[in-house]
Amino acid sequence: MEEHFPDDSSSSGDFERKDTDQMMEQPVTKKENFTFTSNNKKRKNSGRVYNLGKVRQEMTLIHYLVKKVRSQCFKESAWERRVVRGDIILCFDDAQTNSSCCKNPNQLLSAGTEVHYHRRSWYEPILPDMKHNKFPFQILYQDEDVLAIHKPSGIPTMPSQTFNEYTVLHQLRAAMNTEPPPQPVHRLGVGTSGLLLIATSIKSRKILSQAIRERRVKKYYRALVSNGKQIPNQMRIECPIGPIPFPIGGGTLYAACPETHIGDGGSASKKSKPSLSLVRVIRRDIKNDQAVVEVEIPTGRPHQIRIHMAYAGYPLVGDPLYLNGGLPCMEKKYFSKRDPREEDMDSDDDVSGEGEDGMLLRVSLPRDCGYCLHAYRMIFEHPTIDGQWMTITAPPPDHL
Question: Degrees (nearest 5) of the Cα angle 213, 214, 218?
Answer without folding.
Answer: 90
